[in-house]
Design goal:
By secondary structure, the protein is α+β, with helices and mostly antiparallel strands. The chain contains 4 helices and 11 strands. A hairpin with a 2-residue loop joins strand 1 and strand 2. The termini are far apart.
Length: about 180
């Protein structure tokens, strides 16, 4: 009887814990070993790039092998990274078969919003005016969240395995993604 009760309690605990770790808010948990409040990420989108353009850090294979490495790279930059995208970003990345990881400090702006940054302001921090200008990212014009693609021209074949999402550093010290 004692063994049956113990096994039943252990099974119930294991099943409940597995359910909590596997799924929350309708999205399957990804990267469950990441040190976040939810033991991984439950806030993300697949097949789209929700990132913005104010700051940009591009990381490639072999430094970044998968979406979990990409999210960890964002977690490693808590004061400058607010979101990430793991996708094919250039024809070369498609040819090599390795998605790239790009880290940003803001999100895609809604279509009726535009922002222009005074690149000469002494108040700017961690913003590289030369990169913003070279990438034609000032002003920043809002648009619908773009789709991620996996064909050589990056405009035809949808990439359902691309992942992007937020990384929030909460004031109580927890991190959510």
């Amino acid at each position: 009887m004692y063994l049956t009760t113990t096994l039943s309690v252990a099974l119930l605990f294991t099943t409940t814990l597995a359910g909590l770790l596997a799924k929350r808010d309708g999205l399957p948990r990804i990267c469950p070993y990441l040190k976040t409040a939810d033991y991984g990420c439950i806030r993300y989108t697949k097949g789209f790039d929700v990132t913005g353009v104010t700051t940009e850090v591009d990381l490639t294979f072999p430094q970044i092998k998968d979406e979990c490495d990409c999210i960890q790279a964002c977690l490693n930059r808590p004061t400058t990274c607010a979101n990430y995208v793991w996708k094919f970003s250039t024809p070369d990345s498609v040819k090599k078969g390795h998605r790239t990881c790009t880290l940003y400090s803001n999100f895609n702006l809604p279509s009726a919003v535009s922002i222009e940054i005074d690149l000469n302001s002494p108040l700017n921090q961690n913003i590289n005016p030369a990169i913003l200008t070279a990438n034609n990212n000032n002003p920043q014009n809002g648009a619908p969240v773009p789709e991620a693609f996996k064909d050589i021209n990056l405009n035809t074949i949808h990439d359902p395995d691309a992942v992007s999402g937020p990384v929030w550093q909460l004031s109580d010290g927890r991190t959510l993604c």
